[in-house]
Amino acid sequence: MKVVFKILFVILIAFTFSCQNSEIKKPKKQLASIEFGKYNNQNDNLGVELELSKFKNFRELLNRTEEVACNDSLPKVNFRTERKLKTVYFYNPCWDRYLCIFIKQKNTIRIHNDTITKSWDLHYPLDSLENVLRRDIENYGENPMLADNPKKLLIYISYDSNGLKKLPETLDKLTEAYYKITDTTNINIWLDVKFDVPPPPPPFNEPEYIEEIKYVE
User: Fold this and answer.
1) What is the pLDDT of residues 104-148, one digit of tens each?
2) How far is Cα 138 from Cα 181, in angstroms, rounded to an integer?
3) In the chain, count of helices (H) and strands (E)?
4) Residue 109: beta bridge partners?
5) In-domain check, residue 211
6) Is residue 9 part of a domain?
7) What one-character DSSP code corresponds to residue 23?
8) Strand-strand pairing, 47-49 and 74-80
9) CB 94 within 8 A of CB 73
10) CA-to-CA distance for 210 and 135, rounded, in angstroms?
11) Which of 30, 73, 136, 153 is deepest in the core (most CB within 10 A)?
12) How many C-beta atoms lie closer than 10 Å to residue 200's C-beta?
């Protein structure tokens, strides 16, 4: 009887290990990697990663961004979404080398916290980002108050001091909308500080004109 019990015990143990070894391990889901703001002729070694967790506030991040630019490198951030690993490059200039950079306001879009600003006095919620982008990207100089062409469009991003944690979410929405409209990743983004620009005087005897966004129900 003892011999039979030992045999059954050995068979049970062997069956248990067999079942464990036969379990199919599910492969880990691979995230798709995509880079925004990097052009084909750029050297990979120029990119300097900015780890957002190491910065106390947005101003610190902005200062570090400008330091990297002054070292002839490209600041970038990496972040994960549900399906992608994204890298976004910033094109901030080194202000130590420039007294002033002339950029036409019509070729810019500003995002401060959760608000989009276009043409000084037009403000939109962040949920309107795709509509605002599309209007500028598809303009091609037709409306004189909008961007001349997509290559000249510059997007400024700024936050209050405690808004740094929102940056990945904003970048995710911005890059998704831009890619959806253009099918490219050649987006120009600057980190910036918020400042109010006074509107220019209207041309003599000519009314100011800008087309309002029309939303699709």
Assistant:
1) 999 999 999 999 999 777 899 999 999 999 999 999 999 999 999
2) 9
3) 4, 9
4) 155
5) no
6) no
7) P
8) parallel
9) no
10) 11
11) 136
12) 9
